[in-house]
Design brief:
Blueprint lengths: L11 H11 L6 H15 L9 H11 L5 H9 L1
């Protein structure tokens, strides 16, 4: 998300619209929804406050229960 310079929360609806508009192939939208929810919980945790974008990515990767395949497909396009 740092590649997009997002500084405010983005709803799942907004994000899914952006994913669909970018026409990234092989994105499982159900999987994307699950990943989005997991990321939202992790990013809103107290330990993430004050972290820089690089720290966000490192902590997100270490805390996520799944490999975030769908989010990474979209991020690779950006």
């Amino acid at each position: 998300m740092s590649k997009l310079n997002i500084t405010t929360a983005v709803s799942y609806e907004e994000y899914s619209e952006a994913v669909q508009a970018s026409k990234v192939k092989n994105v499982d939208m159900d999987g994307l929804y699950e990943e989005y929810g997991m990321v939202e919980v992790i990013l809103s945790s107290p330990e993430m406050e004050g972290c820089h974008s690089e720290e966000h990515h490192l902590k997100l990767s270490s805390k996520a229960d799944v490999p975030l395949v769908n989010l990474r497909k979209e991020a690779a396009v950006r």
